[in-house]
């Protein structure tokens, strides 16, 4: 019921957006604010949905050109190179999902010094390297929820492993930290995290890492993969290796990519937020900062269109909303949206 109402709100919001966009100019002009969504890597469906949100916000705002960029693999070096180019091109704003919290700070500082407004979203840059850090949800809530989801799937007993994105990813590392915290709860006393492995948000490496876990831990009961790339590859590996029903999988997955595995029971349940909303919110925040509507200080309230008001917290930290849980009953409703 709750998920049905969320869906209705989403559909209504999308319809309103489309009606509104119809009256706006479509083509970018040279006066438009150039706002770049710089993602961890290209070829990731999650970030393609983020890009759709950026375009949606740009159409509503009317004076924004939304530009989608990212390196071919998820490295800080690749992102640094792109930011150097963006400084030379004098874009107006960059929203980055960072491959490393610290390595990007110097180049982000350089961009800000050059007059570019910089925020991070999804996977954040350390304070000093951005003005606002937009998280999709509370990291503790995400980490704790992931442990509960796998616990429910394995009857709260046995070995589990984590298949993450890159070893330096700010967001996954924070969530994994909270997974270890959550594991101290007596409810999980019969469960153990045996290892964290890294698939680098690359489908082939994630797949190989999942197979490696099956070989190394014959008694493995479950995998948490808090990355949309990892959960998809691990689900495929579970089926290919005849592990369906023996190794459970949960994590953060895109309904559009995971529908098959949810519906056939390989993945009993998983969570995620709406990545379209994330790109939309990041674009609104930057547009408001650039146009001087808000300064970007703690307590500032940002009018973020259909997302309502986003409040900037201490240290620039802001949160978008709560993750949804997807299962057999609701996956089809969401698969067509993101
Ligand atoms: C992958 C990326 C992204 C993360 C999602 C859940 O697409 O690692 O940063 O937020 O998974």
The number of domains: 2
CATH topology type of the largest domain: Rossmann fold
Give the end-to-end Cα distance, rounded to a whole number of Å. Answer: 20 Å
Global shape: elongated
Strand content: 15-25%
Order of helices and strands: HEHEHEHEEHEHEHEHEHEHEEEEH
Question: Largest sheet, order of strands side by side?
Answer: 2-1-3-4-5-13
Task: Walk me through the structure.
This protein is of the alpha/beta class. It folds into 2 domains: 151 residues, Rossmann fold, CATH 3.40.50; 134 residues, Rossmann fold. The strands form 4 sheets. Strands 2-1-3-4-5-13 form a 6-stranded parallel beta sheet, sandwiched between helices. A 4-stranded parallel beta sheet has the order 7-6-8-9, sandwiched between helices. It has a two-stranded antiparallel ribbon with strand order 10-14. The radius of gyration is 20 Å and the shape is elongated. The protein starts with a helix and ends with a helix. The N terminus is likely disordered. It binds alpha-L-rhamnopyranose. The site of alpha-L-rhamnopyranose has 13 residues, from helix 8.
Secondary structure layout:
Layout: H1 2-22, E1 33-38, H2 45-61, E2 64-69, H3 76-89, E3 93-96, H4 105-113, E4 117-121, E5 132-135, H5 139-153, E6 158-164, H6 170-182, E7 191-198, H7 203-216, E8 220-225, H8 228-240, E9 248-251, H9 255-263, E10 270-272, H10 275-290, E11 301-303, E12 309-311, E13 317-319, E14 324-326, H11 331-335
Parallel strand pairs: 1-2, 1-3, 3-4, 4-5, 5-13, 6-7, 6-8, 8-9
Antiparallel strand pairs: 10-14, 11-12
Bound molecules: alpha-L-rhamnopyranose.
Alpha-L-rhamnopyranose (RAM) is lined by residues 40, 44, 46, 97, 122-123, 165, 171, 201, 227-229, 252.
């Amino acid at each position: 019921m709750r998920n049905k109402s969320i869906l209705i709100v989403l559909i209504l919001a999308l319809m309103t957006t489309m009606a509104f966009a119809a009256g706006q100019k479509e083509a970018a002009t040279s006066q438009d604010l150039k706002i770049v969504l710089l993602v961890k890597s290209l070829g990731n469906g999650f970030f393609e949905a983020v890009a759709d949100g950026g375009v949606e916000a740009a159409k509503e705002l009317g004076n924004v050109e939304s530009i989608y960029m990212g390196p071919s693999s998820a490295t800080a070096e690749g992102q640094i190179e792109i930011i150097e180019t963006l400084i030379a091109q004098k874009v107006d704003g960059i929203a980055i999902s960072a491959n490393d919290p610290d390595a990007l700070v110097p180049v982000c500082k350089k961009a800000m010094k050059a007059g570019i407004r910089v925020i991070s979203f999804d996977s954040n840059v350390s304070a000093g390297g951005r003005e606002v850090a937009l998280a999709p949800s509370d990291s503790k809530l995400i980490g704790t929820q992931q442990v509960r989801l796998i616990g429910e799937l394995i009857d709260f007993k046995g070995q589990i492993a984590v298949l993450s994105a890159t070893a330096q990813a700010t967001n996954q590392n924070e969530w994994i930290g909270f997974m270890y915290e959550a594991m101290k709860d007596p409810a999980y006393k019969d469960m153990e995290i045996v290892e964290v492995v890294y698939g680098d948000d690359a489908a082939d490496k994630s797949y190989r890492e999942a197979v490696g876990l099956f070989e190394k831990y014959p008694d493995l009961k479950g995998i948490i993969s808090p990355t949309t790339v990892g959960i998809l590859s691990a689900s495929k590996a579970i089926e290919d290796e005849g592990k369906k029903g023996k190794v459970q999988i949960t994590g953060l997955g895109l309904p559009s990519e995971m529908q098959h595995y949810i519906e056939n029971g390989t993945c009993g349940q998983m969570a995620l937020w709406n990545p379209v909303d994330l790109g939309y919110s990041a674009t609104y925040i930057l547009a408001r900062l650039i146009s001087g509507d808000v300064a970007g200080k703690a307590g500032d309230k940002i009018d973020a269109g259909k997302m309502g008001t986003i409040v900037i917290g201490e240290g620039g930290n802001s949160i978008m909303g709560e993750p949804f849980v997807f299962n057999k009953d609701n996956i089809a409703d969401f698969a067509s949206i993101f």
